[in-house]
Design a protein that fits this description.
Blueprint (H helix, E strand, L loop, with lengths): L9 E4 L2 E4 L5 E5 L7 H13 L4 E5 L5 H14 L6 E5 L3 H7 L5 E4 L17 H25 L2 E7 L5 H7 L3 H17 L5 E6 L3 H18 L6 E2 L7 H17 L5 E2 L7 H17 L5 E3 L4 E5 L5 H18 L4 E5 L5 H15 L7 E4 L10 H12 L6 E5 L5 H4 L5 E5 L4 E6 L2 E2 L4 E2 H18 L5
Parallel strand pairs: 3-4, 3-10, 4-5, 5-6, 6-7, 7-8, 9-10, 12-13, 14-15, 15-16
Antiparallel strand pairs: 1-2, 11-12, 16-17, 17-18, 17-19
Helix pairs in contact: 1-2, 3-4, 4-6, 5-6, 6-7, 7-8, 8-9, 8-10, 8-11, 9-10, 10-11
């Protein structure tokens, strides 16, 4: 399907450009320990060799800055000059120091917010403006360094870590996500800094779509569109994670939004590039005569595509695109390369990913990074095997505290990594255990869920 992409200003990242007339770029993130330079260099090479335009690396501490510098040096020595992106949380000083080392820095606005802004409180107008001005002052050194070194910034706003200041004004809503981005645009522009990319990520597809649409309207009103990084955070793994990613990314691309994409899978990061390319290809290949919608709002999709992953990307993208415009009630697909059982399973997976019907448990699991200190792929597989049949229950498996408790806030249960092979168990937003060895964590999670299942008569 031919897509007319929204026109944006350009963001310069090293010798590359995001936005403007540039093609959609694809990126991933390493999940090795950043201080393990040899392994991180090897993983960067694997990701770039698969066709990534950018690789992002978590930088948890000041001690990791030298590692990033050495990683860059070794990649350049191997003839790889693709830009590196640093992912920074909690410590603005790390971000400031990295401006001379990497081509782009991803920050979470929470890095520059007074910790009291996360308390459950209301803000009067004067107090709100004071908090905003304090944030503006905190970010000044970073912006000055970025201007000095020509470093780009991604303002990476996550649903799970919105400040209380913005929530007090707009609620915990897509409007809050979009207006947080607008506040940060205004802060950056006040220092004459415009080398920006924006992202508004959530694990719920509809919430994520609403957030980007609100942001587009606000940027339209301002008369200036910045490039958008799009993705569904903590999408999970397997076909479910791919369907959820395609439902979010694909629908936005079909609407003409998105300049760079990142698929977030709890798998080898190389798989994110493979599937990211399939989403872009799927969006381009969808034709109007592939589908119809009847009077009962059932979408019928027929395309005899042999690549199973590309096919689910097509189905999830167009289903989400049409469902956002006007609610669908059902989905029926046809593909001679799939068995009847595969078709029925894929229909259920897409219907749940888009938010039309619920058939299984939902798993919110992060793709992991250097901050994760347990085998999240193994733990996720274990939890899915135990609880996939628990229809409607939401379970989070999060690698660390950076986004963990917040991003799985709407989950019924979850675990969040706290140290080497340790985690805490959550029920809703509340931790019900301290940091425990992973074996005890899984036992407590199972005990808690089974007890609730009994209390609810086996239904969720």
């Amino acid at each position: 399907m031919k897509i007319a992409r929204k026109s944006t200003v350009k963001c310069f990242i090293g010798d590359t450009i995001i936005g403007g007339e540039s093609d959609i770029s694809i990126q991933s993130m390493t999940n090795s320990t950043t201080g393990d330079v040899e392994r991180t260099v090897a993983q960067c090479k694997e990701i770039f060799n698969e066709g990534a335009d950018y690789v992002r690396i978590a930088v948890p501490s000041m001690n990791d800055i030298d590692a990033i510098r050495e990683i860059s040096r070794q990649l350049n020595g191997a003839g790889i000059y693709n830009p590196l992106i640093a992912d920074v949380h909690f410590n603005p000083k790390i971000a400031e120091a990295l401006t001379a080392v990497v081509d782009k820095i991803r920050i979470n606005p929470g890095n520059f917010t007074n910790e009291t802004d996360f308390l459950d409180k209301k803000y009067e107008k004067e107090e709100y403006e004071k908090s905003l001005e304090e944030t503006r002052s905190r970010v000044k050194p970073l912006i000055e360094n970025c201007l000095r070194h020509g470093t780009a910034i991604r303002i990476g706003i996550n649903h799970g870590s919105l400040s209380q200041r913005i929530i007090s004004k707009f609620g915990n809503s897509p409007e809050a996500m979009a207006n947080s981005a607008i506040e940060w645009i205004a802060i950056c522009e006040s220092y004459d800094f415009t080398n920006l990319v924006l992202s508004l990520k959530a694990s719920n597809v509809h919430f994520m779509l609403e957030s980007y649409f609100h942001l587009e309207k606000l940027m339209e009103a301002r008369g200036k569109h910045y490039p958008l990084h799009i993705g569904v955070t903590e999408a999970g793994n397997g076909l479910e994670g791919r369907a959820k990613s395609a439902a979010g990314i694909g629908a936005l691309l079909l609407h003409g939004f998105g300049d760079t994409i990142r698929v977030s899978l709890t798998e080898n990061p190389v798989n994110e590039i493979i599937f990211g390319k399939k989403i872009v290809a799927a969006v381009e290949d969808i034709q109007p005569d592939f589908y119809t919608i009847d009077e009962n709002r059932t979408l019928f999709y027929t395309h005899h595509e042999p690549d199973r992953e590309k096919f689910i990307a097509e189905v999830a993208a167009i289903s989400s695109y049409e469902h956002y415009k006007r609610a669908l009630n059902d989905l029926k697909i046809a593909n001679r390369f799939l068995s009847t059982a595969e078709i029925e399973n894929m229909e259920k997976i897409v219907l749940q990913a888009v938010g039309i019907k619920i058939f299984f448990a939902e798993f919110i699991s992060c793709p992991s990074c250097s901050r994760t200190q347990f085998d999240i792929e193994k733990v996720t597989a274990h939890v899915k095997e135990k609880f996939s049949s628990f229809r409607g229950v939401k379970i989070g498996i999060m690698g660390c505290v950076v986004n963990g408790p917040g991003e799985m806030a709407d989950a019924h249960y979850g675990i969040v990594g706290y140290g080497k092979d340790r985690a805490a168990v959550y029920k809703g937003k509340q931790a019900i255990s301290k940091s425990l060895p992973m074996e005890e964590v899984l036992q407590l999670l199972e005990k808690t869920i089974l007890l609730e299942k009994k209390n609810f008569g086996g239904e969720f």
